[in-house]
Amino acid sequence: MKIIDIGANLTDPVFRGIYRGKRAHEDDMPRILERSRSAGVVGMMVTGGSLKESAEAVQLCRQHPGLFSTAGCHPTRSNEVDDHPGGADAYFAELRQLIDENRDKIVAVGECGLDYDRLQFSDKAAQNKYFLRQFELAEATGLPMFLHNRNTDGDFVRVIRENRHRFTGGVVHSFTGSVDEARELLALGLYIGINGCSLKTEENIAVVKEIPVDRLMLETDCPYCEIRPTHASHKLLPPASGATADKDSSGGWMAPESRKKERWDSECMVKSRNEPCMIRSVLGVLANLHDTTEETLAARIFESTCSVFFRNVQHDF
C-alpha cells in the first residue's frame, strides 16, 4: 500500500517536543517518520503557511527522503505581508525565489485561500488581496495549488472560478463544506482533501460519501484534525485502527499506543498530537463509506495525487 499525506504541518514545534514554547520531551521526528512508513506513507507534503514557514518546510524536506513541501501564505497570515520589509512585492518575490531555487522539493503554491472563521487575524480585504497574488505565483511557476476555504459564503468558489485558467490544478484541503460546494469545486476540476476534521459530523459524512473516489485525496493536517471518539466517523473506523499495537494477528495495520506528553515514550504517539501514520484511520473510514477495500482506495488516491502534484518532480514512490 502506498499513501501520500498531502497535508502535514511538520514544521510545528510539537513535532520537536516543544509545546507552547516549553520543551516537554526530546525531538522525536525520526520516530514519527518511522511510524508513518510502517503505516504505508511513502510521501508527504509539508505545509508552508508563510514565507518563513515555507523556507523551514523546504529545509526539513531536504533532511528526510519522501518529504516535499508547499510554499505560500495562509489567509490568516495575510496581515504579515504588509509588515514584511519591502512590503507585498518583496514578500511574493521572495516566495517566487524560494520556489525557483527548490523546484525539486516544492510541489504546490499554498497553503492559500480564504478563511472567514478567523477574521481576527486577517480581514477579508487582506485575505482576498493576497489570495489573488498567489494565482500569479501559480501562473508563473506552473505549479498546482494547495487551497484553504472556511465559511466564505461563496467568495472562495467565486475567486477560484474567476482565476481557474491561471493554474493547472489543485486540491481544496481539509474540506468541511456542503454537497453543493463540493460539486462546484469538482466541476472546476479540483480535488478534495479529507482528514479527521472533514469527518466530524453526520452531515460531513454524507457529503464525503458523495465525492467520487477518483477526486479524493488523503491528509492528516497533523498535528491537528485527528479522528476523535466524539466524531461521527469514529464508529466507521476499522476495528484495528483503535488498537494499541503495530499489527493485529491477521497482519493488518493497527494504531500505535499513545500517551500524554508528560509520560512520553519514543515508541508511542503523544496523545492529541495527530501524526502522519494516522492517515490510515482516514483511509479506513473512506473505504467504509465507499464500500471498497483500503488497498483499492489507496491505490486510486495515490494515482490521483501523483498526477496532480508529482508529475514533474523526481521521486522514488
Automatic annotation (TrEMBL):
One Pfam family named in its UniProt record: TatD_DNase
GO molecular function, one term: metal ion binding
Keyword Transcription: no
Keywords: Hydrolase, Metal-binding, Nuclease
SUPFAM superfamilies named among the record's database cross-references: Metallo-dependent hydrolases (SSF51556)
Residue positions binding a divalent metal cation 2: 148, 173
Region (Disordered) location: 236-256
Chain sites annotated for binding a divalent metal cation 1: 111, 221
Domain of life of the organism encoding this protein: Eukaryota
UniProt-listed InterPro entries: DNase_TatD-rel_CS (IPR018228), Metal_Hydrolase (IPR032466), TatD-like (IPR001130), TatD-type_Hydrolase (IPR050891)
Family affiliation: Belongs to the metallo-dependent hydrolases superfamily. TatD-type hydrolase family.
Descriptive protein name: Uncharacterized protein
Source organism of the structure: Coemansia guatemalensis
